[in-house]
Design a protein that fits this description.
Oligomer: single chain
Helix content: 55-70%
Number of strands: 5
Number of helices: 11
Shape: rod-shaped
Largest sheet: 5 strands, mixed
Distance between the termini: 11 Å
Strand order of the largest sheet: 1-2-3-5-4
C-alpha cells in the first residue's frame, strides 16, 4: 500500500525562537555602533591629529585626548544618547579652543545628535545642543580673551551661522530617520498580521477539509461494513446447504474489507472522527459528475479523454471533491459566464483541469478560499494541485492524482 503519511499537507514553518530574534537584532546594532565609532575616530584623528600634536606640551596631550573622547563615547550612544551628546559636544568645544575652526572635529557630536533625535529624545537633545552651541560661542567669542583662546581659534560670523545650520540639518535628518523607522516598523507589523491571518485561514480550511474527509470515512465504513454484514449473514445461512454460494459471499467479504481498509488508510492521517449515521446515498465519484455540473449555477462543459477505467475509491472521491470545490469557488468568487472541466485518464494518474472565464478573486498565488483544502486533499493521495489566474483572463485549477494503488497485504 502507498504510504500516505508522506504526503500530508505542508504547514508554515514555525516562527523564530526568541534566541534567534535576539541574535538577529543584535548583529546590526553592534555593526552600526562600531561603524559610528570608527567613522568618528577617522574624521577626528586623520583630520586633526597633526594640528593636535603640533601644540606645545602639555596642550598637545590634552588635545589628543579631547579628539578621542567624543568618538569613543559613541559606543554608548544607544543606552545614554543625551549623555553621549553632552560628552562629545563638550570634548569638541574644548578642542575648538586650541586649533582653528574645522568641521572634522564636530563629527562625533553630530552623530550623537542624530542618534538622540532618531531615538525619540528630541526635546532633551535640542536643549543640550542649544546649551552646547551657546557655550561654544561664549568660549570662543565673548570670553575668549579671559580664557586665553587664540585669535586663530575664534570663529567668524559665517562659521557660527553655518554651524547652527548644520545642527538644524542634523536634527531634521534624525527626525526623518525616526519617521522612516516608525513607518517600516508599522509596515512590518501589518505584514506580520496579514501573514498570521493567512496562516490561520489556511489552518482553518485544512481543519474543515479534515472534517469533510472524516465524514467521507464514515461513508466508506458505513457502505463497506453494511455489505460485509449482509454477506456474512448470507454465508452463514448457506454454508451447510449451498457451500458454493457461501464461498461467493466470503469472496465478496474479502473484497469489501480490502477496499475499506485501503480507503481508511488513505485518509487516516488527516481525519477527525465525527459521529454520523451510516450513509444512505451512493458514494461520491466522477460517475456523479453530471449531477454536479447540472447544479453548478452556470454553464459547464465537461470533456473526458484517455481510456476511462474504474478508479480507486479514494481517488475517485477526491477528484469529485476537487471539481466540486473549484466550481463552488467559481460561483462564489468569480463573475464567470461559463466553466470548463477536463478529465484525462493517463496510464498511472488522473488529471483534472477546471477553467472559468471570470475575473480571479483572491491571492495571485492560488491561496484563496478553498484552494488550501483542495491542495491538502490532493497531497494526502500523493498528488499535486495548482491554481492561479490566466494571462488572458479567467482562472485555472489543475490537479494530478496518482491512480496506481497497490493492493498487497490488504486483506
Amino acid at each position: 500500500m502507498r504510504d500516505h503519511r508522506r504526503h500530508r499537507p505542508e504547514w508554515p514553518s514555525p516562527t523564530p525562537r526568541n534566541g534567534d530574534r535576539w541574535r538577529a537584532s543584535r548583529g546590526p546594532r553592534h555593526g552600526g555602533r562600531h561603524g559610528a565609532v570608527i567613522a568618528g575616530l577617522c574624521f577626528h584623528v586623520f583630520g586633526n591629529w597633526s594640528q593636535a600634536t603640533a601644540l606645545a606640551r602639555p596642550a598637545d596631550i590634552a588635545a589628543c585626548a579631547l579628539l578621542l573622547v567624543g568618538p569613543l563615547a559613541l559606543s554608548r550612544r544607544d543606552k545614554a544618547p543625551i549623555a553621549v551628546l553632552a560628552v562629545a559636544g563638550a570634548a569638541s568645544i574644548g578642542f575648538a579652543t586650541l586649533v582653528p575652526p574645522s568641521w572634522t572635529f564636530a563629527v562625533a557630536p553630530a552623530i550623537a545628535l542624530f542618534t538622540a533625535v532618531k531615538a525619540g529624545r528630541l526635546r532633551p537633545a535640542l536643549a543640550v545642543t542649544a546649551a552646547l552651541y551657546v557655550a561654544y560661542l561664549c568660549v570662543t567669542w565673548f570670553f575668549a580673551g579671559p580664557l586665553g583662546v587664540g585669535e586663530t581659534a575664534r570663529p567668524g560670523a559665517r562659521i557660527a551661522v553655518l554651524t547652527a545650520l548644520a545642527l538644524a540639518l542634523t536634527v531634521f535628518l534624525g527626525g526623518a530617520a525616526r519617521s522612516r523607522a516608525e513607518y517600516l516598523a508599522e509596515l512590518a507589523k501589518v505584514h506580520a498580521e496579514r501573514a498570521r491571518a493567512r496562516e490561520e485561514q489556511e489552518r482553518r480550511q485544512a481543519s474543515d477539509e479534515r472534517l469533510r474527509i472524516a465524514r467521507e470515512l464514515h461513508d466508506v465504513l458505513g457502505h463497506h461494513l453494511s455489505l460485509i454484514n449482509v454477506q456474512a449473514g448470507v454465508g452463514l445461512h448457506l454454508m451447510d446447504n449451498r457451500p458454493e454460494q457461501a464461498r461467493e459471499a466470503l469472496t465478496a467479504i474479502k473484497t469489501a474489507s480490502a477496499e475499506a481498509l485501503r480507503e481508511v488508510r488513505a485518509v487516516l492521517g488527516v481525519l477527525r472522527p465525527e459521529e454520523e449515521a451510516a450513509p444512505r446515498q451512493p458514494a461520491l465519484g466522477l460517475d456523479r459528475l453530471d449531477d454536479l455540473t447540472a447544479d453548478a449555477g452556470l454553464p459547464v462543459t465537461t470533456t473526458t479523454s484517455g481510456d476511462r477505467r474504474p478508479l480507486p475509491a479514494e481517488v475517485d472521491r477526491a477528484a469529485y471533491r476537487i471539481v466540486q470545490e473549484a466550481l463552488t469557488n467559481v460561483r462564489r468568487h468569480a463573475a464567470a459566464g461559463s466553466a470548463e472541466v477536463a478529465i484525462e485518464y493517463a496510464p498511472t494518474e488522473l488529471r483534472l483541469r477546471i477553467r472559468n472565464d471570470g475575473a480571479a478573486v483572491g491571492e495571485p498565488d492560488g491561496s484563496g478560499s478553498g484552494i488550501a483544502g483542495m491542495r491538502a486533499r490532493a497531497a494526502s493521495l500523493g498528488g499535486t494541485l495548482s491554481a492561479g489566474p490566466l494571462p488572458r483572463g479567467g482562472y485555472l485549477v489543475t490537479a494530478t492524482l496518482p491512480t496506481a494503488v497497490s493492493t498487497e497485504g490488504e486483506t
